[in-house]
From TrEMBL:
One of its GO terms (molecular function) is hydrolase activity. It comes from Sphaerosporella brunnea. GO terms for biological process: proteolysis involved in protein catabolic process. Keywords: Cytoplasm, Hydrolase, Nucleus, Proteasome. PROSITE patterns: PROTEASOME_BETA_2. The lineage of its organism: Eukaryota, Fungi, Dikarya, Ascomycota, Pezizomycotina. This is Nucleophile aminohydrolase. It holds the Pfam family Proteasome. It comes from the Eukaryota.
Length: 248
């Protein structure tokens, strides 16, 4: 090659060969957060109504708490990939209603619904439904039961007193641990030697805690906000309330 020859460049639009990484990622995180708190004879389930994709807000009115039957106490809250979350909610709603018609109009118990949801999630473990779920309801004795799940179905059969998932869960869970389960709380006057005993909170106190948790979360997470859907399940039935949150 001559020292005075002009250099050769690749044609315009030609991409030089280089290692390429091919990936299949069918999921996206659509933001939001959910909370579940079990009282003695009532259950609070709540979620914000913001649906996001990155820095974009797709919807400000997307509910995350679903009633599974009109005449039962079963409620499901889901967060994560919006499409999978809705699919899980619809699958559970159909299962609960099918059970009723196959068992002489008897409603599915909350324990049976918890086991069925585990089956649905674990059955898809090789191609998981990307959604975190909180299932709750009243048992045959009128006591509140609460179960939380990861996307492959892991859950505690004994149930929980409080649960949270979603974008702001890292902020909400420590708050609930302290305010609901009284962790790191001590009896006044004991010089931090006697821990406070865990007790059930009244429904008004729980509602205030949930509102405070979401109000704080909206100050720190852009994926959470717009509206708060708060559902109360008790012996008196199903009650749903909507409150405004920050919209920026």
């Amino acid at each position: 090659m001559s020292l005075f020859a002009s250099p050769s460049y690749p044609p315009v639009g030609y991409a030089a060969s280089a290692p390429r990484q091919h990936a299949f990622n069918p999921y996206t995180d659509n933001g939001g957060s959910i909370i579940g708190i079990a009282g003695d004879d009532f259950l609070i389930m709540a979620g914000d109504t913001r649906h996001t994709s990155g820095y974009n807000i797709n919807s400000r009115t997307e509910k995350k708490v679903f009633r599974l039957s009109e005449d039962s106490t079963l409620v499901l809250a889901t967060v994560g990939f919006g499409a999978d979350a809705k699919d899980i909610a619809e699958t559970m709603r159909l299962a609960v209603n099918d059970f009723k018609f196959q068992h002489n109009l008897k409603n599915m118990t909350v324990q049976a619904a918890a086991q069925y949801l585990f089956t649905v999630l674990y059955g898809n473990r090789f191609f998981p439904k990307y959604a975190y779920c909180i299932l709750g309801g009243l048992d045959k004795d009128g006591k509140a039961r609460l179960y939380s799940y990861d996307p492959v179905g892991s859950y505690s059969k004994e149930g929980e007193r409080r649960a949270a998932a979603g974008a702001a869960s890292s902020l909400i869970v420590p708050f609930l641990d302290n305010q609901v389960e009284f962790k790191n709380q001590y009896v006044p006057g004991t010089n931090f030697t006697v821990e406070r005993e865990v007790e059930y909170l009244p429904v008004d106190k729980v509602k205030k805690l949930v509102k405070d948790a979401f109000t704080s979360a909206t100050e720190r997470h852009i994926e959470v906000g717009d509206g708060l859907q708060l559902v109360t399940i008790s012996k008196d039935g199903y009650q749903e309330e909507l409150f405004e949150l920050k919209k920026d």
